[in-house]
Amino acid sequence: MIVRGEIVTLAKSDSGSTSGRTDVTGTTLDDYTGRYAQRIQGMTASEIRALFAVASRPEVVSFAGGAPYTAGLPIDAVGEMLNELMARRGVSALQYGIGQGEEQLREQICSVMALEGIDASCGASPDDVVVTTGGQQALDLIARVFLDPGDVVFAEGPTYVGALGVFQAAQAEVVHVAMDDQGLIPEALEEAITTVARSGRQAKFLYTVPTFQNPAGVTLSEQRRERVLEICQRAGLLVVEDNPYGLFRYEGEPLRALRARVREGVIYVGTFSKTFSPGVRVGWVLAPHAVREKLVLVNEAQILCPSPFSQAVVSAYLSTMPWQEHLKGFRELYRERRDTMLESLASLMPAGTRWTRPEGGLFIWVTLPPGLHSKAMLPRAINARVAYVPGTGFYADGSGTDTMRLSYCLPPPERIREGVRRLASVMEQEMSVRAVFGAPAERGDTVGRPSVDTPAPGVA
Amino acid sequence: MIVRGEIVTLAKSDSGSTSGRTDVTGTTLDDYTGRYAQRIQGMTASEIRALFAVASRPEVVSFAGGAPYTAGLPIDAVGEMLNELMARRGVSALQYGIGQGEEQLREQICSVMALEGIDASCGASPDDVVVTTGGQQALDLIARVFLDPGDVVFAEGPTYVGALGVFQAAQAEVVHVAMDDQGLIPEALEEAITTVARSGRQAKFLYTVPTFQNPAGVTLSEQRRERVLEICQRAGLLVVEDNPYGLFRYEGEPLRALRARVREGVIYVGTFSKTFSPGVRVGWVLAPHAVREKLVLVNEAQILCPSPFSQAVVSAYLSTMPWQEHLKGFRELYRERRDTMLESLASLMPAGTRWTRPEGGLFIWVTLPPGLHSKAMLPRAINARVAYVPGTGFYADGSGTDTMRLSYCLPPPERIREGVRRLASVMEQEMSVRAVFGAPAERGDTVGRPSVDTPAPGVA
Questions:
Q1: B57: burial class by Cβ within 10 Å (0-12, 13-18, 19+)?
Q2: A38 contacts B148? CB cut-off 8 A
Q3: Interface confidence (ipTM) of the complex
Q4: Nearest residue of B to residue A310 by CA position?
Q5: B residues 378..437 contacting A (CB < 8 A)
Q6: Considering only Cβ atoms within 10 Å of each terminal Cβ, which end of chain B, N or C, has fewer?
Q7: Is residue A445 in some structural domain?
């Protein structure tokens, strides 16, 4: 931390004078340490962030971000749409709204969810939707409603880094459940339930990204969807289904969302961050009525109401623009980039490297050859002008040292090829260094809190 | 709660079958009661909300809302501005941003704060600003950083209802400090500090709205500003200064913000909700560097980043529009409405009624003649087509039964006169009823949680 002036403490002093108020030129050391809430203790910014600041330079091929390709949007048409929106309903869009979110948008959200099988036949209703400040706030609201310190949450291992941040801030304990190429392993879930029950506790919910998982890129199979729901229903375990990528399928048959299969027991989280824009920060929760009421109260306590302006923009986008055509365009774009990355990996990666083959979404999960350490290697990779997110960020328990997440949605194909080439070269160098000198010194320095290993929010 | 279908429980069952999944037509009773976090227990929607739904009908003169007069904005020009914004930087405005908020806006925020004396001379810097989803989220982030369950917070009595909601959600204990026409009473603050210290505890901070306070409309005098800061510095008590209305002064000399007087010990909260638009949900915190770092981490865990789109809109508004001219127009408009309300109160209120005389801001605080009860009277008032917020909503301890908050910012002057006439008439009827029958039955039904007595978020 840079200290730009002398230290002025808040400590008790005998004089009540105001002298000394103006004799420093900046802010001070952390005099507040003793005052922070428990949930904040030890929460510090990551040293890795500085690396990612470098990674955003144009000469670096970044596979780190999870940001969608907003340059693919018809920006001029959006500008015209905004102008019309103001003329039509500017005064109300600029005013306060309600904590649950605007009714028109909640109806449109139901139409969007219906594309993945979540409709009136399974009890989905605009009245049970809460609009949020992106999917992230949806997770935070759910945590506020359900989690006390020490509560257990099940999540895939690896899992979405932003969810880990939420659970950490809620002082909850994350128990990871293993995945394979078919997604969450039902037997592993059963085992986790049994283990937690044996310790006299019960998890509050299972957090899952069943479709094109972030970060693993795998999808829960049809058979397992039914099986996982059965296990959860039998155990009385709530499911929080996070589905930001469901509409980005590039091959294979669409699978109905978990929420489409059951009327109760699943809280569903969606977002417009990938289908339209992360910058407007509009997401939602579909929850059982009683839970929805709590979510609204917590939402009001947190932000009064989701932005009526952003909501009006999303509403206008959905109702006046051919958004499903845009989506089709994005799917084609991302499919090409995924194919390029898969081909590049196949032709360039050193022997012993493994990776997932996503049918959709934005991410590929890479497991490095034995002995390589993705976080230790990151500075060398960025030096070689390629960036990724080390796998440890996606685990609450320090696992994942030999893994990394690659995102293919932003760089164009030729850059993807070049980036994978650079990455392969860095890995090969690391392997030779290791062959001569053994494990790198950074090896021991790896078990950390998840939120410090990632460059939020760009990795969302 | 409306139950539209039969109840499907999440309880353990022996069969793993999926039967029963489709035989209901809506959502269910609250099967989740046992699962909620402690902070949620007993948090329920207010019965009073239904009344406020009626109060929003056009025939009702509403003094309840704290919403600014957005119809006074040059909506067409804003529309054109948005169109240009997209052309200029649409792709980045629609993309993810950073957790702290955009640098350009943080610099503009510093210019706005400088209008109230908060500038480089007291160490204010864009680097110590965190952009938030309105002032409400700023308060929530501060609570997340500082408050553990059971912690004590000092706040004026009455205080901002949204702050009470935040402190309640943080399971903190609010200790009210009395005000008079000069604002917070320093001796009362000293006494509160002593009392809490005697119980072996220490308050985490003093939450205060020193200028044109919401809901009381009073302003902390020049002399008391220095005195309150001295008391807090001596006691090692942090100050959270919330200043949404400072730029809305209609008479008298501007007083520098508390933060303008000290370099440390004050966390400052601002918002564009009153100066531009509540619909974009953009506010900020100016905090000591160490605290600012924590606020950013908590902000990222909660929403990843404040909306880059909303931030770009506010930036464009500040840089391309004559916003200080607009502000002048709003000041003239609100001053006329304040004057009208003060005149109407003076000529129409029954004897024994008292009220504050705000030099700025949006609110007048009314104390009813002995025996009248503002919450009990509300249904009759709304029936007579006038609405206000009962005073109990602004206290954490059930005080304020004989008080109410009146807002004059939305109704035009002739409606204000008519509304006060209706209110006076309802009060007179109540007084005659009381003279004959004694205190109303509802009298005992008044000590409640603050968040249930108010129609959030419109009352912000």
A1: exposed
A2: yes
A3: 0.90
A4: B280
A5: none
A6: N
A7: no
pLDDT digits over A230-242, tens only? 999 999 999 999 9
Query: B446 lies in a domain?
Result: no
- At B43 the pLDDT is 75
> Touching check for B168 and chain A: CB below 8 Å?
yes
Residues A216 and A254 in one domain: yes
| 3-state secondary structure at position B89 | helix
Digit-coded pLDDT (tens) for A357-415: 999 999 999 999 999 999 999 999 999 999 999 999 999 999 999 999 999 999 999 99
Q: How many CB pairs under 8 A join A and B?
A: 402
Q: What residues in B contact A280, CB-CB < 8 Å?
A: 94, 307, 309-310
User: Is 50 exceeded by the pLDDT of residue A50?
Assistant: yes
Residue A32 pLDDT class (50, 70, 90 cuts): confident
Same domain for A160 and A198, yes or no, is yes
The beta-carbon neighbor of A32 closest among B85, B140, B290 is: B290
- In the DSSP assignment, the letter for residue B115 is T
State the residue range of the domain holding A63.
Answer: 49-73+325-437
Q: Do A45 and B277 touch (CB under 8 A)?
A: no
Token pair listed for A7: 């230290």
Give B434's pLDDT tier (boundaries 50, 70, 90).
Answer: confident
pLDDT at B458: 53
Which residues of chain A make contact with B44, given a CB cutoff of 8 A? 293, 297
Local confidence band at A42 (pLDDT 50, 70, 90 cut-offs): low
pLDDT at A31: 76
Instruction: Return the residue of B nearest to A65 by Cα.
Output: B96
Q: Which residues pair with B270 in a beta bridge?
A: B284
Residue B327: how many CB atoms within 10 A of its CB? 16
- Residue B181 backbone class (left: φ over 0; alpha: ψ -120 to 50; beta: rest): alpha
Domain assignment present for residue B210? The answer is: yes
Best A94, A141, A206 residue to mutate vs chain B (most B CBs within 10 Å): A94
pLDDT of residue A449: 45
Least confident stretch, A267-276, B35-44, B182-191, B330-339: B35-44
Look up residue B393 and give its two tokens: 């909503």
Which of B293, B320, B347 delimits the end of a domain? B320
pLDDT higher than threshold 80 for residue A38: yes
Distance from CA of B116 to the nearest CA of A (A): 17
Instruction: Choose the closest CB to B279 out of A39, A96, A166.
Output: A96
Q: Do A297 and B43 touch (CB under 8 A)?
A: yes
For B122, nearest residue in chain A (alpha carbons):
A22
Q: Is B298 in contact with A40 (Cβ distance < 8 A)? A: yes
- Whether A185 and A287 map to the same domain: the answer is yes
Question: Given a cut of 60, is residue B456 above it in pLDDT?
Answer: no
Residues B220 and B358 in one domain: no
Closest residue of chain B to A73, computed from CA coordinates: B91
**Phi and psi (nearest 5°) for B367?**
-105, 125
- Residues B282-291 have a mean pLDDT of 96
Residue B149 located in a structural domain: yes
